Amino acid sequence: MKIMLDAGHGYNTPGKRSPDGMREYEFNRAVANYARQLLANYKNVTVSFSHSDQRDVSLKARTDKANSLNVDIFVSIHANAFGGGWNNVGGIETFVYPTRPPVAYQLAQKIQRNLVISTGLDNRDVKTADFHVLRETKMDAVLVECGFMTNRNEIKLLRSETYRRTIAEGIVKALAEQFNLQRKANAAPAPAPAPPPAKSPAAAKKDGLYKVQAGAFENEENAKELAERLRKAGFDVYIDQE
Predict the structure, then answer these.
(1) Cα separation of 208 and 187, whole Å?
(2) 3-state DSSP: the chain helix, strand, coil percent, rounded to 5?
């Protein structure tokens, strides 16, 4: 299977940066690099990049390259923005072309679900848009917006290597699910949540109860899915509705 990863924009693209100066491409390319490393663990998968660290690549050049290589799926990675200054708009959203091609739409749903669960950010849903990379690609294509550069909380995440790896893992997991990718026999094991630490006698004697919230969701099914994943990892979990 041939997959093209598209890190949106470039180092020198006008605009496309946070109010405090982080270029969107810095995030996009990091996620693409992590995703390529993860996809190397699967059989019969070839990964190509549409972007370049040496120059800004036009949208036409990106889709022309995808079409000439006859790739099977095109995944465009972005960070979002709203307005020119800081605000509270945030969350994850994934786009497909307005005709909602079935395979692209199914993949977009899987990416959206994985990223909302793994990041805990607001679910802005799967949407349609007449973006060039969705319209001019001959193969199925999706575009994912992984958080808002204009949100003070989310820009901290977008700068974090842990968050970038988390986004890459969610995208790759969705690709593996959608296309039934098979892991290589010698592949590194998929990352899993660490088991809860054992309680020390000193900690057990302290007064009070300390709790850690793993996520907050408007959709009950998203909360149940995260709870089930945590239970399988060995955690005691409960869902509290507010």
Answers:
(1) 44
(2) 40, 15, 45
Provide the 3-class DSSP secondary structure of residue 76.
strand
Structure tokens at 105: 């739409």
What's residue 204's pLDDT?
40
Q: Is the separation of the CB atoms in 72 and 1 below 8 Å?
A: yes
DSSP state of 42: B
Among 118, 123, 94, 109, which Cα is nearest to 225's?
118
What is the rounded distance in angstroms from the CA atom of residue 36 to the CA atom of residue 48? 8
- Mean pLDDT in each 10-residue stretch from start to end of the chain (242 residues)? 98 95 98 98 98 97 98 98 96 98 98 97 98 98 98 98 97 98 83 43 43 71 76 68 68
Q: Which among 131, 28, 152 has a CA at the least distance from the CA of 78? A: 28
Q: Cα(109)–Cα(164) distance, rounded to whole angstroms?
A: 20
**How large is the angle between the packed helices 102-119 and 161-179, nearest 10 degrees?**
140
Domain ranges for the chain: 2-179, 195-242
66, two tokens: 């995808």
* The pLDDT value given to residue 84: 87
* pLDDT of 225: 76
Fold of 2-179: Aminopeptidase (3.40.630)
